[in-house]
Specification:
Number of helices: 11
Mean pLDDT: 96
Strand content: 15-25%
Structural class: alpha+beta
Oligomer: single chain
Bound molecules: flavin-adenine dinucleotide
Order of helices and strands: HHHHHHEEEEEEEEHEEHHHH
Length: 387
Amino acid sequence: MKQRLLFSSDHELFRDMVKRFIDKEIVPFHAQWEHDGIVPRDLWLKAGEAGLLGCSIPEEYGGSGADELYNFVFVEELARAGITGPGFAVHNEMVMPYILSFGTEEQKLHWLPKMVRGEVIGALGLTEPHVGSDLRNIRTSAVRDGDEYVISGQKTFISNGQLCDVVVLATKTDPNAKEGGISLFIVESSRTGFVKGRRLEKIGLKAQDTSELFFEEMRVPVSNLLGPEHGGFKLLMKNLAQERLTQAVRSAVVVETVIDYTIAYATERKMFGQTLADFQNTQFKLAEMKTEAVVARVFVDHCLKLFMARELSGIEAAMAKMTLSNLHCRVVDECLQLFGGWGYMWEYPIARAYADARVVRIAGGSIEVMKQIIGRSLFPIDKSTQN
Ligand SMILES: Cc1cc2nc3c(=O)[nH]c(=O)nc-3n(C[C@H](O)[C@H](O)[C@H](O)COP(=O)(O)OP(=O)(O)OC[C@H]3O[C@@H](n4cnc5c(N)ncnc54)[C@H](O)[C@@H]3O)c2cc1C
C-alpha cells in the first residue's frame, strides 16, 4: 500500500522514537512479564519520562499538547511489536480523556500531570460480574451521606486492576432511574474500603493485569464526582467511540503484521520440493487477506481523520470495531494454519497473536453490541434496546 497521508514527518519522527523505546524497554522483557502476569511499575515511569503518556494532554495539565495522532502512533507501534502487556491504551485513551473532558479544573490539575509522568496509573471500572454489555444495570452503588458518597459493590475484568492508583468508576446513584441513574467517580485506590481482588488468568494478554476490584463501604468526598450526578451514562457513551476506534487501530496493525510474517515464513518453508509460498492455496489465502487488510486500513484511516476533525460518530466507531475485530481474529487463525505445528508453539509470535486476538470480539463492546448500535441506526424508530 502507498504511504499513508495521515501522519506528518513529525509524527514519523515520534514513531521512530517510540519504536526505539519499545525495542529497548519492552521487547526484551515481555516474555518474563507474561510469566509474571503483570508489567513492572517502573515501566510506566520510563514511558512517562519518554513522553509517551497522555501526549495530547494540554501543557497546563503536564502534557505536551500534541494532537491525538501521537497517542495512536504509540498504539500502532505496540501492536506492531506484538506487545499486549502494558495497559497504556486504557490509561491514555480511556482514563485520561474522561478526566480531561469531564473533570473540574481542580481534578484535572490534581490527576493529569501525575498520569502524564506515569506516577499514577489509571483504570476504568465499568464491568461487574453479572453485567458487562448492559451497563445501565450495574449494581455498584454510591449513596450520598453529607459531604461524602458511600460506595459499595464489585467490578471485574479491570485492566490495570492491580497496578492502578486511580479508577474512573461507574456507580448507580439513583437505583430507581429508568435511564441508568449512573454517576462516575474518580476513586483513589488508597482509600479505605478499596480492595484489589484476584488477578485473573486469561487465554491471552498474559502480561496484562486484569483484576477484580471490591468496594466495601468506601467513602469518597463529593468532590470526587466526575461530571454531573446521575449523568454518567451519557459520558460513557461519548467516550466509548474513542475506545472502539483505538481497538480498530490496533487490529489493523496486527492484521498487517501477521500477514507480513506469514509471507516471510511461507517464502522460507520448504516441502514437496518447493516452498509453502508456491502453493496456489497459500497465494490465494494471502491475496485475500492482504486485500482485506488494505481495504480495512483505508476505512480505519478514514475514521481516524473523522476523529481528528471531531466528526467520528458512535456508529462509524462501531463499524470500525466490528469489522476490524472480525478480520483480526480470522487473519490470525488463517495465518496460523499456514505455520502448521510451529504456529501452535508459544515461541512463535503467530501463536501469541492468536491467543491475544480472541478478546477483541468481546472487550470494549462485543461484536453483537456493535451490530446492535449499527442496526439501530438503520431503524431509528426502534428504541427497545439501548447501549
Ligand atoms: C481482557 C479483558 C479486559 C477488560 N478490561 C476492562 C476494563 O478495563 N474495564 C472494564 O470496565 N471492563 C473491561 N473488560 C470487560 C469487557 O468490556 C466486557 O467483557 C464486555 O463488555 C462484555 O461484557 P460481559 O463480559 O459481561 O459479557 P455479557 O454482556 O454477559 O455478554 C455475553 C454475550 O451476550 C452478548 N450480547 C450482549 N448484548 C447483546 C445484544 N444486545 N444482542 C445480542 N447479544 C448480546 C454478548 O455479545 C456476548 O456474546 C475487559 C474484558 C476482558 C476480557
